[in-house]
Specification:
CATH superfamily of the largest domain in chain A: 2-keto-3-deoxy-galactonokinase, substrate binding domain
CATH class of the largest domain in chain A: Alpha Beta
Structural class of chain A: alpha/beta
Oligomer: homodimer
Largest sheet of chain A: 6 strands, mixed
Strand content of chain A: 15-25%
Order of helices and strands of chain A: HEEEHEEEHEEEEHEEEHHHHHEHEH
Organism (chains A, B): Paraburkholderia agricolaris
Largest interface: A-B, 48 and 48 residues
Distance between the termini of chain A: 20 Å
Protein name (chains A, B): 2-dehydro-3-deoxygalactonokinase
Number of strands of chain A: 15
């Protein structure tokens, strides 16, 4: 697959230059990363280059009007209407919560282990008011006592896997982490998502900080305090036996004893939670005769957050954590190509 | 110590009968359990019988007016003014957050291990506007990498210990649990609080339910669902290796897969959290060559909540968990007596 994203440009599709307009006419694919609280749209040429991007807050729980009143159509038209006018032949693909039971149309989960072919087979179509068909990528479900689900991350993971060069032995088991509100850790092998775990780290951090006594003694620091963060990671790693419900109270008590300032407490708590996440992941890996130490893993997500995870992972002996960029754009393109929605050309349409 | 509380009566101190008035004149002690969100007041005769109780929502974070504007005095007068008019010679003692840095006057923590004498030695006095002196019981602090603090629970624990009959060998190490917003587990021996642990179980449950995605798929059941609760406890006990951040997500995903109804999810999540608390406690006990299995422990707190803990404890092999009633009233009386604030008489003043 062609390396996309390296030429990402944010063009205004309405007021763009004539040259940009000409490029937009060659657009081959519109792809949407449509989550709960945000919507990102990407426009690609036939070679997979991203010509333009748009972002809005019209996530599925934040539509401009209710779903019954055409909220999905309205949000889609706001984001992509101008693109579709200029490139009416472009295919449209979407991944994320837009395919959930609360989404535009439900694309039932495909079971793990799942490869890209399984995702393609699970695509569900919905026709927008303007007549264009959206292809909704399904999420992945892992059944069991502790079922796991993902929607959107599967597409990012296939974006990361599609980027593998010959230097990567894709037949070997590897680990991909996606930090965030609901952090995911996926074990991948031979182009498949074998199994995965969810940690509600980001959302629990926000709930603890905003809605428990822990937030009352915290002040936001001017810049992230790496020492306080590392302190939290190490406590979770070395003294976390009693579990998160016990260790988080130390964010308050270390303040009471003068060992942690108000400005240090947010990063300390963040370190505690990420430390517990990694300790939990380590325990699960151990059951699979695996370990974080020495792993060559990949991270997908917000760069600053991934950097926090790299710092924390090093405390678990994992010093090779590579940040994968443009995983969303690459993944959407890859699934669209595999679904036959685009016919990738070897040359960029706008070359020269 | 005389068994108090068994004759607990809630008399209206203003509109009571003449007989009640006569008893109030013999009141020897007013004791306050003054926490963050509530204030409970107890009036005792010289034998330690509770003559009357009052409760209000005037916790230290919920005063009728600000502390600077005499909020503590106002709340105290509202609760106990009428009692003091009728029994002006009564001593006054208070325990709980009223002695914190945000309280009426700070009663600095005493260090664990701590016995009742240490509490008495740490009492701090404050004079109310009406002239009466309040004796504020200090909390207990356990220093270390994960410091622990309690305020109010130490008094309840000494209330439970004071109730020990000759059948209890107080020289043996024992465990006392205080379920709640911030659950405490104390190891006691020879009349001392040796060490203790805090689990933010109640507050984390509320934050997860009210302020995360988990609450969105929950409905409140008509009655507690013990099966769903036990399911959560067992998952935490047997499949909790990945930790709380991972297991709580199953409250949602078991709903998505149809394994848990909306009405079952609250009790399942409650079971998960209490299960993680007990698994964490078990891990800490193991470090001390101890275990929950076979423990003869005591529980202090809300009866329905303690019953949940009894059900959960049985899953950890602990089938002897005795509910201690009136621990607060007994503890306040005991500390007051040990401080010389009352001279316990062997007979009830209102006998006959």
């Amino acid at each position: 697959m062609k390396q996309v994203g390296s030429q990402t440009q944010a063009l205004d599709p309405v007021n763009g230059t004539a040259a940009a307009d000409a490029r937009l006419q060659h657009a081959a694919l519109i792809a949407l990363d449509w989550g709960t609280t945000s919507l990102r749209a990407y426009l690609y040429d036939a070679a997979g280059n991203v010509l333009a991007t748009r972002a809005s807050t019209a996530g599925i729980m934040n539509l401009p009007r209710s779903a019954e009143q055409g909220g999905f159509d309205a949000a889609f038209d706001d984001a992509c209407g101008a693109w579709l006018e200029q490139a009416p032949g472009a295919s449209v693909i979407a991944a994320g919560m837009v395919g959930s039971a609360q989404g535009w149309v439900e694309a039932p989960y495909v079971d793990a282990p799942a490869n890209a072919d399984a995702l393609v087979a699970g695509i569900v179509r919905v026709k927008a008011a303007g007549g264009v068909t959206l292809h909704i990528v399904p999420g992945v479900l892992q059944r069991g006592d502790l079922p796991n689900v993902m929607r959107g991350e599967e597409t990012q993971i296939f974006g990361a896997l599609g980027q593998d060069t010959g230097a990567v032995d894709s037949s070997k088991r590897a680990l991909i982490g996606l930090p965030g509100t609901h952090a995911k850790w996926a074990v991948v092998q031979a182009g498949r998502i074998e199994r995965f775990h969810t940690f509600m780290t980001g959302e629990v951090f926000a709930a603890l900080r905003e809605h428990t006594i822990l937030g009352r003694t915290m002040d936001t620091p001017d810049r992230p305090d790496t020492d306080a963060f590392l302190h939290g990671v190490k406590i979770a790693r070395d003294k976390g036996q009693a579990g998160l419900l016990a260790t988080v109270f130390s964010s308050r008590t270390l303040g009471l004893t003068g060992q942690l300032s108000r400005e240090q407490q947010p990063d300390y708590l963040s370190g505690l939670l990420i430390g517990h996440e990694l300790a939990g992941l380590e325990a699960v890996l151990a059951q699979q005769h695996n370990s974080l130490a020495g792993q060559q893993l990949r991270l997908i997500g917000n760069e600053a957050l991934c950097e926090r995870y790299r710092v924390a992972l090093a405390q678990f002996g994992c010093t090779h954590a590579e940040l994968v960029k443009y995983a969303t754009e690459r993944g959407l393109w890859r699934v669209a190509a595999q679904a036959g929605l685009v016919n990738p050309t070897p040359q960029a349409a706008h070359a020269g």
